[in-house]
Automatic annotation (TrEMBL):
Cross-referenced Gene3D superfamilies: 3.30.450.40, 3.30.70.270, 6.10.340.10
Top-level taxon in the UniProt lineage: Bacteria
PANTHER family for this protein: DIGUANYLATE CYCLASE DGCM-RELATED (PTHR45138:SF9), REGULATORY COMPONENTS OF SENSORY TRANSDUCTION SYSTEM (PTHR45138)
Classification via CDD domains: GGDEF (cd01949), HAMP (cd06225)
InterPro entries: Diguanylate_Cyclase (IPR050469), GAF (IPR003018), GAF-like_dom_sf (IPR029016), GGDEF_dom (IPR000160), HAMP_dom (IPR003660), Nucleotide_cyclase (IPR029787), Rev_trsase/Diguanyl_cyclase (IPR043128)
GO molecular function: diguanylate cyclase activity
Xref: SUPFAM superfamilies: GAF domain-like (SSF55781), HAMP domain-like (SSF158472), Nucleotide cyclase (SSF55073)
Occurrences of domain GGDEF (ranges): 497-632
TM stretches of this protein: 217-240
Name of the protein in its database record: Diguanylate cyclase (GGDEF)-like protein
């Protein structure tokens, strides 16, 4: 059963039951009041009849006294009879004189009662008579009798405005009634009022009046109850609507919230309990929206982190990609405005590898970080994190020349292999506050893992470098030379570009080793690599071919250009002696160079190298210290 129907039952019981009880009480009260009014009217009628009876008794007493007086004055016989006859003319039904001897003088009329035994001013029980008796000295008594019947009562009620039934009782027995002869009728619905004629009298006047009809009163009361019930029903309906509608609105809105509609509007206008509940639910819904937004943001961050993890897994050997993923994860984790990451790719300075949001900063960010210089440099050298605002005010960290002054900074080192491999720097919080200890701890945990990953990438890079470089001179080795030459030949073929290869060999290098030792020979090789490298471009590939032989690949270079470069290299080698042993004189060194061009002297790495090698040996046979082009033609001159 719903709340609306329960309220209907409760309010109906609370209101209608008192209405019904009030109706019953009203009917009873009004009926009793009307009965009291009727009884009062009957009492007036009874008083009037009683007064009439008393007056009649007084009249009969006066008549009997008059008869007694005449009987005393007249002798017995006709005189008494004449007095009795005259007494009967006074509106009496019987008159008599009783002598002392008991002789009755009544003119021989029918006796309604024994005149010798009747008593004064009482209704004779055997007949509806009212008697007046007066003693007569020495004679007896004078008796006057009047009939008390319906006619007499109607005459007595002539001046009384009443429709009541009047009955005269003597010792509880009816002796006269306004209805006529016989006992009075007993009628249902009558109000009976009785009253003694006088205190102690045997005569009682009973007045029966029709009771006021209750049907009209009941109908009127029922009609009033119906009207009141209809009004109460309307008020109850209004009250239920006022009570239930906010609850229904609140329930509907709550169901919408349960269904997932957190934008549902809850009723909060009233100041009652429903309004308070609505406001509480609205606050709860707002918090749920906030929590849902946080969950959605967390889900998005988780998805982004998973994507970054995938990127990191895919960038295991990609230093730039790996560091960028680490930086983005750190920026998102602490809601930083910007961030940079430095990596120690070689001994000495740290290089800026990844950056995010630095274009929105007011302070510039250094591209290189020198260990021990400035706040960030001390993180790289000392390995201790730094957290705070860079500035000159009290409580701030004094920045170095290359530090981003005026920024909130959280800088942690990236450690791997027992050394600092980089520095992760986060700048300014999105909400303008500073970074806290919890955020520092979080970034330190991330940095510890990232440092290992960065160190692995650097180690992998070093391994790759060692696999394709010559450990003595730092030049590319034969493996890298083969890959590069094949790549350049493919590119030259595809784009119809020129390509030249120079093969260089140090003249009489074995004699240098035998004379000055292998350490000096190694120093000569390193110096030779440095001097040749100074004459090459960034796109050129200089590799150690083996022993004292070197190969120089010149992309997009014609044969003439290759010859000119060969001459410059030859001059750079022979121009200055190479450093000899400590304290010893310099060592003069020369070089023989063989040149091959693509595609004139070969269309593959092997044929090009063979052509250059043949040109080199041609230069050797021609006296060394010269440049020879493939097919044995001499392009240089013999300085000797």
């Amino acid at each position: 059963m719903g709340l609306r129907y329960r309220l209907w039952l409760v309010l109906s019981a609370v209101v209608l039951v008192p209405l019904v009880v009030a109706g019953v009480v009203i009917v009873r009260t009004v009926s009793a009041e009307r009965d009291a009014r009727v009884a009062a009217t009957g009492d007036v009628t009874a008083r009037a009849v009683g007064s009439s009876l008393q007056l009649e008794c007084q009249r009969l007493g006066a008549l009997s006294a008059q008869l007694a007086a005449e009987a005393q004055l007249r002798p017995a016989g006709r005189g008494v009879d004449a007095a009795v006859a005259r007494a009967r003319t006074g509106e009496v039904s019987y008159a008599a004189v009783v002598t002392a001897a008991g002789e009755v003088h009544d003119g021989g009329v029918r006796r309604p009662a024994d005149p010798r035994t009747v008593r004064s001013c009482e209704v004779h029980l055997d007949a509806p008579l009212l008697v007046g008796v007066t003693p007569v000295d020495e004679v007896g008594r004078a008796v006057v009798v009047a009939s008390v019947d319906g006619a007499w009562l109607q005459q007595a009620l002539r001046d009384v405005d009443s429709t009541a039934t009047v009955t005269v009782l003597a010792d509880g027995r009816p002796v006269a009634s306004s209805l006529g002869a016989g006992a009075p009728r007993r009628v249902d619905g009558e109000v009976v009022t009785s009253r003694a004629v006088e205190p102690g009298s045997r005569l009682v006047v009973a007045v029966a009046q029709p009771a006021p009809g209750e049907r009209g009163l009941v109908l009127a009361t029922l009609l009033a109850l119906l009207v009141a019930g209809a009004l109460v029903a309307a008020l109850v309906r209004l009250a239920i609507t006022l009570l239930v509608k906010p609850l229904l609105d609140l329930t509907e809105a709550s169901e919408r919230v349960v269904a997932g509609d957190l934008d549902a509007t809850l009723p909060t206008a009233s100041d009652d309990e429903v309004g308070r509940l609505g406001r509480s639910l609205s606050l709860m819904t707002a918090e749920m929206r906030q929590y849902l937004g946080q969950l959605q943001r967390s889900r998005d961050e988780l998805r982004d982190n998973l994507e970054r993890l995938g990127d990191a897994l895919g960038s295991t050997h990609d230093l730039d990609g790996l560091v960028q993923v680490v930086l983005e994860s750190a920026v998102a984790a602490v809601e930083a405005k910007a961030g940079v990451a430095y990596v120690a790719e070689s001994a000495g300075a740290l290089t800026l590898v990844a950056a995010q949001g630095i274009e929105d900063l007011d302070a510039p960010v250094a591209r290189r970080l020198l260990p021990g210089h400035g706040v960030l440099g001390r993180v790289a050298s000392g390995g201790a994190p730094v957290r705070g605002r860079l500035g000159t005010s009290p409580g701030e960290i004094t920045p170095g020349p290359d530090d981003p002054a005026g920024c909130e900074v959280l800088a942690v080192p990236l450690r791997g292999g027992g050394r600092v491999t980089g520095v992760l720097v986060l700048l300014d919080h999105l909400d303008g506050s500073g970074f806290g200890p919890a955020e520092e701890e979080e970034i330190r945990g991330l940095a510890s893992q990232a440092g290992i990953a960065v160190d692995n990438v650097l180690l992998h890079r070093e391994t790759e470098r060692l696999a394709i470089t010559d450990p003595l001179t730092g030049l590319w080795n034969f493996r890298y030379l083969s890959m590069s030459l094949a790549r350049e030949i493919e590119r030259a073929t595809r784009f119809d570009r020129s390509l030249a290869v120079l093969m260089l060999d140090i003249d009489r290098f074995k004699a240098i080793n035998d004379t000055h030792g292998h350490a000096t020979g190694d120093a000569v090789l390193r110096e030779f690599a440095a001097r040749v490298g100074e004459k090459t471009r960034d796109v050129d590939v200089l590799a150690r071919y083996g022993g004292e032989e070197f190969v120089l690949v010149l992309p997009e270079t014609l044969l003439d250009g290759a010859v000119q470069l060969g001459e410059r290299v030859r001059e750079a080698i022979r121009e200055l002696p190479f450093p000899g042993p400590e304290g010893g004189p310099g060592i003069p060194v020369t070089v023989s160079i063989g040149i091959a061009a693509f595609p004139e002297h070969g269309g593959s790495p092997a044929t090009l190298l063979r052509s250059a090698d043949a040109a080199l040996y041609a230069a050797k046979r021609a006296g060394r210290d010269r440049v020879v082009v493939g097919a044995g033609s001499v392009a240089g001159w013999d300085p000797s």
